Predict the structure of Ribosomal RNA small subunit methyltransferase A.
Amino acid sequence: MREFGIRPNRDLGQNFLVDSNILDVIGRAAELTEDDVVLEVGGGLGVLSEYLAERTKHVHVVELDRGLQPALESALDPHPNTTLHMGDAVKLDLTTLDPPPTKVVANLPYGVAATVIIQTIELESVQLWVAMVQKEVGQRFAAAASTPAYGVPSVLAQLACDVKVIRKVPRGVFHPVPNVDSVLVGLKRHSPAPPQSLKTLVQHGFAHRRKALARSLALAPNPPEHIRDRTREALEALGHPADARAESLSPAQWRALWEKLCL
Ligand SMILES: C[S@@+](CC[C@H](N)C(=O)[O-])C[C@H]1O[C@@H](n2cnc3c(N)ncnc32)[C@H](O)[C@@H]1O
């Protein structure tokens, strides 16, 4: 950082890894092999990028901050199996990455971590994610139905993946030390990404968490005709109370509801 005159930008979630032990923890969790093509969102100074490049076939590194570009290019320069993509990971078209990524391994910027995970589930080539995220974000993705952390990210991720919080990450592995706790979260794909209409159903269902699901869907913009009654009937047919709330349905039960309402 001194060499390149870099001052970390907290608004961009710049907490850089400074403990080499954590790299091995990430590497083991990601089960890295020489056949892997990795997508790393948030290259930073390239510490994790270099570790990944030494162990895999190819690494796509995405970084938003142009101020980090010289340092990152200098770290990646000795690794011809890397491609640097400067830009916002949320806006870049990641479907055109060549070769297509098989894994996402990253110390994700806090602000966009959940969005990046949800968006990359759309990349059918990706089979596994190991990501450092804020503790609450990790818990939200891994949460079971009827628990406080369960919500849209839990359902959307678990419709496609097995999700688990792998372990807590000590604050001291980052510089600067963040003022929130982090965890390593792991996702393993078991199914294709859910279709858009299922994702929309889940989002509208959770939009009014304290109301009955049938009511919440009826409050969505331009609701389908008779959606409240149809949802109540479908819920009962699936063995739920007609006034069940969004949080009481498991991901599999959301899919079953969608099949009844939308197919
Ligand atoms: C937590 S740091 C991780 C840096 C590095 N991988 C490490 O582990 O030391 C997150 C990085 O993501 C970058 N970043 C923030 N928002 C981004 C976005 N929307 N798209 C791509 N990169 C982003 C930040 O500039 C920062 O370098």
Summary: Residues 12-17, 41-45, 47-48, 62-65, 68, 88-90, 107, 109, 112 surround S-adenosylmethionine (CB under 6 Å). The first strand starts at residue 16 and ends at 17. The domain at 196-261 is CATH 1.10.8.100 (Helicase, Ruva Protein; domain 3).
